[in-house]
Amino acid sequence: MHQETLLYMLAECRPGLIQRPASVAPPGSSEGRAGERIHIPEGPAVIGAAWDEIPFGWDNEFGRATVSVRAFSLDSLPARNLDWRVFFRANGEPDSLRPRTWIHGAGRLLVKTVFGPVPFEVAAGWPVQVSGEQARAYCAHHGGRLPTEAELCRAAYMAAEGARRPYPWGDAAPAPCHGNFGFARLFPSPTGSHPGGASAWGVEELVGNGWEWTSTPFSPLPGFRAYARTYPGYSADFFDGEHDVVFGASFATDDKLLRPSFRNWYRRNYPYPFTSFRVAWDG
């Protein structure tokens, strides 16, 4: 995870300080694909893992819990920069809703990347990178809300018959066709670029291309134990009601972390990480 922190810190560097290596292909322009509302029926979601279920996990992953999730609807894809621009303009372009990655230069809108800013047209179809508080405002504007951790677990990993899959797409090992993760590229992908990673319900990009904000405060699962004597505060220091669970993975997340039990979190007003979101609705 520390490599992700370093990368989003690099994206904050002065433009021109970091140059894209010739070995890294430049991103092309694309508006991506808009999401559509998908209905997820009532049913179970499994969060975390039993102590003997996985060979290694961080302390917050243990304490397997089965949660009953009411029926809800979910956008099939994350919100894009393009979608956010419409929302931003409709609300008068206040600074409180301006993504941290958006900057103006030479009279045009630019979007920050690890290798410096790119024209908005290049990043229009990428998942928009915002804080949890900003994401909540967008969802409310569209008559929805952020999904819970349990809802995303159900949408991603639960099959119709109630079994939990190892990956949203099934049993196959992670591959580039499934999503943008594991440094396959050092930029986000336009939404809709990886239909092969769709879950059993047809929801896409639940793993890769950006962590996704939830409305669930980061808290321990039943039976939590800070087992690492050398790092007892890895999770416990953040059980403070100010940090929310973020779900999935980003383009800079190692493949080894793509497991159903993995849990990540950020302070909900923190705008710097590779975090996006999708809208959920009741019923």
Automatic annotation (TrEMBL):
Which stretches make up the Sulfatase-modifying factor enzyme-like domain? 36-281
InterPro entries in the record: CTDL_fold, EgtD_Methyltrsf_superfamily, SUMF_dom, SUMF_sf
List the protein's name: SUMF1/EgtB/PvdO family nonheme iron enzyme
- Which PANTHER family does the entry link to? ERGOTHIONEINE BIOSYNTHESIS PROTEIN 1 (PTHR43397:SF1)
Q: Which Pfam families match?
A: FGE-sulfatase (PF03781)
Annotated signal peptide: none
